[in-house]
Amino acid sequence: MKNKTWLRYGCWIAVLSGWANVASAYVNVLSATASSEWSLYKAQNTIDESGMSGDQCSNVTYPNRMWGTDGGAVTGWIKFDLGARHSITNMRLWNANETGYINVGVKYADILVSPTGAGPASEGMGDWTVLIEDQLFTQAPGTSGYVTTDSIALSTTTRYIALDCSENYGSSTRIGFGEVRFYGEKAPFDSGLSLITGVTATASSEWSYYKAVNAVDDSGMTGDLCSNITYPNKMWGTDDNEVTGWIKFDLGALYAPSFMRVWNANETGYTHAGVKYADILVSPTGVGPASEGMGDWTVLISSNRLIQAPGTNGYVTVDDIPLDTTTRYIALDCLQNYGYAYRIGLCEVRFYGERAYEGTVISIH
Q1: 49-104 pLDDT tens trace
Q2: Which CATH architecture has domain 191-355?
Q3: CATH number for the domain whose boundaries are 4-186
Q4: 346/215 Cα distance (integer angstroms)
Q5: Considering the entire predicted model, what is its pTM?
Q6: Domain ranges in the chain?
């Protein structure tokens, strides 16, 4: 259906936006720019409420009420700068709704995230990583008062997010859409929470020099930048032929961790060993295997998805995972990697929060 090798070199559109002030609030977008715009179908039109009355979209989008690529460009990407790191819960997209021209609308697009927002927003380009592949968007009806049914769950923390629009509904002229909105709140990483230090780690198994301790000792890290050379002693990985496994952390005392950051396996050529899905668990004692139904371990977040690392030097993770719990022991039960047949693992894990008062009962929200 799509050839992503050539799609990477399609046109692009860039958007700058502000931040939400309350939980799950609409993130107010400030400005937009594009590599390609047709006539009066400017990038700014996707974020300025032009053609919108509340949630209702007009079917008269020319001029100044949608974005469309320049003539003949039927693919393109759009990237958004949220101004600061945000925990985004979902996005809504109103497709191209001009009566008679709804085939211009986006049918399929990858949704990507980036720590820097630099360069073309396509798979394999720069530090952009695919969050959702080939997301299907509904074709607009071409009638006035159109309310989108496309509310896409994102559950990610990032500053930069993008759509790489790979297919429209049959137009040979261009691709585009009317409006996009993001919902969420400013991420806790930007609110001055302290890094929890002195964390120790143990795991279900370890391979060679890929010890659990490597995930908490800053090996391979320079600040927030992760090396793409992780052998030896710069990541944790399970023993040979174990493609699932758990790693548990002792915070050293009772804490109220607000969130955790995870840098995935980043060795060039081996990023598919990285964790794709993991349960996040807590325990009052930390005893025994850290899996659902084992001992006193309780699942805090089920099947949390982690982004595949780019395999490039200086990788900055986009995986800030809200925790909102009080515990001393926390674990990742790693359920699936990105396709590697021999092991599963990750580079670094950090926890941010405050020391809890003695006697605080473990809570899960």
Answers
A1: 899 999 999 999 888 899 789 988 999 988 887 766 778 899 999 999 999 999 99
A2: Sandwich (2.60)
A3: 2.60.120.260
A4: 7
A5: 0.56
A6: 4-186, 191-355
